[in-house]
Amino acid sequence: MNQQTQGIAEHGSGPELDTGIRNFSMLLSSTPRGARLARLLAVDTLRSWGLPHERASHVIAELAANAATHGRLPGRSFRLTLYVVGATLRIEVSDTRGDRMPVPQVPDTTAESGRGLLLVETLADRWGVTEERFPRKTVWAELGFSPPEPAPSRSGAVDD
Q: Which of 39, 55, 126, 154 could form a disulfide with 61 if both were Cys (CB 3.0 to 4.6 A apart)?
């Protein structure tokens, strides 16, 4: 496979040093298969972190599909990165088509495509594009969520 794991990490060497920052980053092929794999890996990662993934999976699917379709250059991959800081998930998808900036469009009612960024705009709390060293760009979206409730302690519990 044309994939390279950059890291799945929680920073900090133990509970006493845990900063609460989690990240995941992977290089994926700029193909429909790579876009689908981006969504599947992200959902799996968010589940393993105990975080909600429903909204995020739609946003990741759209951004990855755009990178694989509009940000594609033969032989070049795109990068999916997830950061969780506090109660915010930041999704970043970087590709090598800095000359093609995403612009939300209002598609014709009969069009079969062209609604992806409208969906991202609706589901994300914030989104945007960061121009990087040419020819790269990163399209990002941030989603707020409620942190998971800690499991109730069974210490001292009395069973009936």
A: 39
pTM score, whole prediction: 0.76
Distance CA 62, CA 125 (A): 15
Residue-by-residue DSSP string for the chain: ---EEEEEEESSSSTTT--SEEEEEEEEESSHHHHHHHHHHHHHHHHHTT---HHHHHHHHHHHHHHHHTS--TT-EEEEEEEEETTEEEEEEEES-TTS--------TT-SS--HHHHHHHH-SEEEEEE-STT-EEEEEEEE-PPPPPPPP-TT----
pLDDT in tens, 13-27: 333 334 568 999 999
